[in-house]
Amino acid sequence: MLAEALAWLVTPASATARRMGLLAESIAIAARHRRCRAAWAPHLAASRRALLDSAHAARGRRIALVLGSGHLLDVPLAELAGLFEQVWLVDIVQPWPARLAAHRHANVRLIEADVTECLARPPVEPPVPTRFLDEPGIDWVASVNLLSQLAAPAQRWLRARRPELTEPGIARYGETLLANHLAWLGRFGAPVCLLADLEQTRLDTTGAVIERRDYRPLLAAWKIRSEWRWDLAPTGELTGGQSAFHRVAALSQ
Description:
The chain is an alpha/beta fold. It has one domain (about 1-190). About 40% of the residues lie in helices and about 25% in strands. It has helices at about 1-10, 15-20, 20-35, 35-55, 75-85, 95-105, 150-160, 165-185, and strands at about 65, 85-90, 110, 140-145, 190-205, 210-215, 225-235, 245-250. Strands 1, 2, 3, 4, 5, 6, 7 and 8 form an eight-stranded mixed β-sheet that branches. Helix 5 links the parallel strand 1 and strand 2. The relative contact order is 0.15.
């Protein structure tokens, strides 16, 4: 807990990232990785491999745009920096490991941005993002294990600030955010590598399924290039002895 508290104090982050809980989530991801390093290793290796396979197939070598770069646990930064003239790392929180790693490469740029373009104050209807679409040098785009995380911050805000909204309405809002992200990716004039959850599963202490969420219908228009299991929370990581795993895929248009 001391390490997490210190990270809260020393990590540069916007007021929006702090208020919406995204700095806390970034710190929690790093802490869970420390606890679950062995369980996460196959997923992180598969993510890096899928990104590199996609990046090597890109025709241009000017700008690689990486959305959801985070702590760079799943991003092969050195390899991408060697492959492209520039690498742009985009996330609403740029933690110190990412800042230090980026500093080692003259062609890596950190961009602090909300990829939903709506978190400062969630509007009645979330917009389809437009940022970066007019950048002429982008030759490859990656959305890195980001899609299923997009809805929660805005939904928390709506529950706290918009009591007139029903739970089905809040759920639809989240679904719109996810659909908008995919629509945004589809507008880039460059190949896109989408790393995303196909399915999330939570198990009780006996191994019985107590919750499952399926993202496949949302991703029906995308082609699965590879998929794997991510043991997100092994037994003992969650309260009550529960555990959780995801099915993750690398997808393209």
